[in-house]
Amino acid sequence: EAERRGLDLRFEGDDATPPLWTDPGKVRQILLNLIGNAIKFTKEGGIAVAVDCDRSASEDFQIHVRDTGPGIAPEEQQRIFQPFTQADYSHSRSAGGTGLGLAIALTVARLLGGDIALQSTPGEGSTFTLHLPSLNEKGR
Ligand code: ADP
């Protein structure tokens, strides 16, 4: 889809990143939503997905999904995580969607013991950061 829209989609990893023990199906759902939105709302430029692991904080993983899209106004940044809510710009309406994706992604992230944070500057782009704790190999 990124290719079809002429957008650059990059993954930035690091071979030294330790394994993340979590529910892979649920993480896939969350990332499909965040990356899907980034592709849907970005007209020019691209999307970068980067993984960081803070070993000092008991292996807290951060997966950043960064785009060069329209950005999200400060007053919308909390609202868009609520069910059936879209930011108030015509682009969201014309892009379709239900306004449910982020609400579900946040619920699933919290079920995994994590969270989703948003940093965005209107006119420049958005970065959604999925924070995830790594479980140990026994799943606890
Ligand atoms: P949907 O994509 O179905 O509208 P979501 O819950 O996934 O629902 O997103 C809610 C709203 O948040 C979107 O309609 C859009 O207004 C805003 N949004 C989400 N991701 C981005 C993004 N990467 N860039 C700009 N706006 C975004």
Written description of the protein model:
- By secondary structure, the protein is of the alpha+beta class.
- It is 25% helix and 27% strand.
- It has three helices and five strands, in the order βαββααββ.
- The chain has a five-stranded mixed beta sheet with strand order 1-2-3-5-4, with helices on one face.
- The model has no long low-confidence stretch (mean pLDDT 89).
- Adenosine-5'-diphosphate binds next to α1 and α3.
Number of strands: 5
First-residue to last-residue Cα separation: 36 Å
Structural class: alpha+beta
N-to-C SSE string, H for helix and E for strand: EHEEHHEE
Bound molecule kinds, no repeats: adenosine-5'-diphosphate
